[in-house]
Design brief:
This protein has 258 residues and is mostly helical. It is built from 10 helices and 3 strands, in the order ααβββαααααααα. A 3-stranded antiparallel sheet has the order 1-2-3, covered by helices on one side. Helix 1 packs antiparallel against helix 3, helix 1 runs parallel beside helix 4 and helix 9 packs antiparallel against helix 10.
Length: 258
């Protein structure tokens, strides 16, 4: 006998997809629950959800038929994608104002999920320019900025390659920081009088987990202790990986301070 999926199951799948997109794009727990409630009301359902850093469990009840379903969805690796977060927020308001049907919501969520990232070369150039800008803010000269630019680009490129090959994300951060700081350290020996230690310090800033640490604080303040704690520990491990990479490079090249 073939199992026939009912409409409540489909609604639960779409809501889980929305939660997954938000969480893995860098949204905090309050934002995830806000949009979940907004979309569930538009679908004439009541949603109860358990949020974990690695999975969601949702129990969905149809307000008309009282039909219930419970589903679990494991989350892929987390990243930062503000385009998806803003697109889902706009879609929720538009769906509310225009009274979208379930099929319209499902189609829009699928479209948002398929949104393409910026081209890789644009990301490499933009992040490298940002690193060079930080170097300038901390007092670096043009040579320091150029070193930081290429060090950041090298570290980010290697990290992207490792992520594509599904390596552990902490290891990706460690290797990315090691490559970036190593490029800056080589420049230190080529031009020792220019003090490009500043380039070493700023070339790894692209790896700092600012969003997870901010989200951990907001989650803890809002009372979501489990997700807030997990996010804080996750961010802390990334920071430790970056620090370890800098320590290894400083030890190899005999650099005593940054």
């Amino acid at each position: 006998m073939q199992y026939k999926e009912n409409i409540t199951d489909k609604k639960a799948e779409v809501l889980l997809k929305i939660c997954s997109l938000l969480m893995t794009s860098g949204a905090n727990t309050s934002r995830v629950l806000l949009l979940l409630e907004r979309f569930s009301k538009l679908m004439n359902t009541d949603a109860q959800v358990f949020i974990n850093h690695k999975a969601f469990i949702i129990t969905l009840t149809d307000e008309k038929t009282q039909e219930k379903t419970t589903q679990l969805k494991r989350l892929p690796g987390h990243g930062i994608n503000f385009s998806i977060m803003s697109a889902l927020s706009r879609a929720s308001m538009k769906a509310k104002n225009e009274a979208w049907s379930f099929n319209q919501i499902e189609d829009e969520v699928n479209r948002i999920a398929d949104l393409k990232h910026y081209p890789r070369i644009i990301i490499l150039l933009a992040v490298s320019l940002a690193g060079a800008g930080f170097c300038n803010l901390f007092g670096g000269n043009w040579l320091n900025m150029i070193i930081t630019f290429f060090a950041t680009m090298g570290g980010l490129f290697v990290r992207q390659e490792l992520v594509k090959k599904s390596f552990n994300h902490y290891l990706c951060a460690l290797v990315g920081a090691f490559i970036a700081s190593s490029i800056a350290a080589v420049a230190l020996f080529i031009n020792a009088n220019n003090e490009p230690q500043l380039a070493m310090a700023t070339s790894v800033l692209f790896l700092i987990p600012g969003v997870p640490l901010i989200n951990s604080f907001t989650d803890l303040v809002d009372g979501y202790i489990i997700t807030g704690t997990v996010r804080f520990i996750n961010g802390l491990i990334f920071v430790m990986a970056i620090a370890l990479a800098l320590f290894i490079v400083m030890y190899i090249f005999g650099i005593h301070s940054l």
